[in-house]
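Hi P.,

Sorry for the delay on this. The queue was packed all week, but I finally got your sequence through. Input first:
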Amino acid sequence: MARGNGDIANITYDPSQLGYSVLNDAPPTSERHKPGRVYTSEEAYEEEKQKVFYHDWLNVGRVEEIQKPGDYLTFRIADEPILVVRTKDNTIKAMANVCAHRGVEVAFGSGNTKFFTCPYHGWVYELNGKLKDAQHLEKTCGFDVSNCRLPELKVDTWGGFIFVTLNPNPKPLLEALGDVPKIYEPYQIDRLRMAMKFPTELNVNWKLVNENLTDIYHIAVLHMDTFGPFQPLSGYRFSITDGGYHGRFLGGTLTPDGKSRVGGPMPWLPESLHSGGYSSHIPPNMAFFPRFDYLSYSTVWPIDVDKCIGWSYMLFPAEYFDQPDFMETAEIYANFYKAFLAEDLEMIHSLQKGLKSRYYGQGPMSTFEAGVLSTINHNITKVSE
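Then the structure:
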């Protein structure tokens, strides 16, 4: 068999890896889709910010984005601006990107710096967040520079991913990830490097993007001209987790013809994973798409009740970067990803409008939408607590 050609013949696949075949033994369901207000209510959105985004562990990027001391990146978690930096002692710190004086952001975008300086009044902070200098406060009573700093946040890593939480007392990251590290251990994700990342802004509720990325029901219809033919449902099994799901596909990779452009499977991947890959949701907002030759993943971030931004990442084995014209090859993967994402975006925008209609009827759910149900239940349960 040619390596990485997307054929499913002669591929050994242990169906016990995941619970159900979507076509054969998935359990019956009587579930229906949720009321429109779940996606349109300002009150629900405010609760989600507090109980989901200000509570859970959240992926904000890759360790390789901050390799050297002074490297930093900024992010916004709903209304909270954050700053992630590699300090002089080579540790990763996460802090509120909010000046202790008036609240102005002290850093923007990403880059490398020796200090963070507020652009409004010039307060200067060390890389570890401690205030270094604040001018013209000699007559300000009760203020001590040595006791002032940017608020620290919890930060941890797994597989080369950086996770941050605003929760002061979170469960350990590995506990929060559940079975994710075990399932994806064969992919050795910490050996992958980021070729590119790009944002996508949408005028929809963030949960609709989440649910679309877990929806297997639409693949053979909406994506029949892109990746649908290379992910046959006959080779698909899934299992549900607490707030997420894992689906295993047999078939091709995410390229226009389903065939690898980088020479086939990751060198360390067992043969049983030399076809297709996974489609997973890691709660609350991370969609995970490992294939036999690369990994793409997305995170979705609310801006308002009906506006969000998604960040998409393309990761490949580090040794592939030495191939001639590798970045041009990676662009093929990225452009194909953008092509089927565009198919999704048109439908999601229509869905957002439909949820506001008086005729929206909370239709019955298919077993193909088990991941959708798990994803939305995670958020609804947290909001109702």
